[in-house]
Write the structure tokens for this entry.
Amino acid sequence: MLIIAGSGGNGAKAYHCSNCGGLVSSSDRLVTIGDQQRHQFVNPAGFECHFYTFASCPGAMATGTPTQEYSWFDGYGWQLAFCRTCGLHLGWRYAAADRQVRPAEFWGILITQLLAR
């Protein structure tokens, strides 16, 4: 189930980089993936990752070629996501591997890397 709460960047909360304070996204860009907007997974190294999913993150940039290896979301490849301002690792950008999969992309941004205002 996909629910996009808007895309205008005027949500009640603004999410900023915990390192530099740069704007990453806003609450109206939160997106529901698998019936949740907040997720918890353990990566292959054993680290727990708690993150929100956003339809877009103008303050983040993705690098590398998407890979489906160890993806937490079936049908999606992931790339590392960094703060556009300071380069802090924020989480991941997920891109659909198939054109029929929706949404075509979303972002998983670590809660520990965000300040909500």
User: Anything to note?
Assistant: The chain has no helices and eleven strands. The radius of gyration is 13 Å. The mean pLDDT is 91. The CA atoms of residues 96 and 103 lie 7 Å apart.
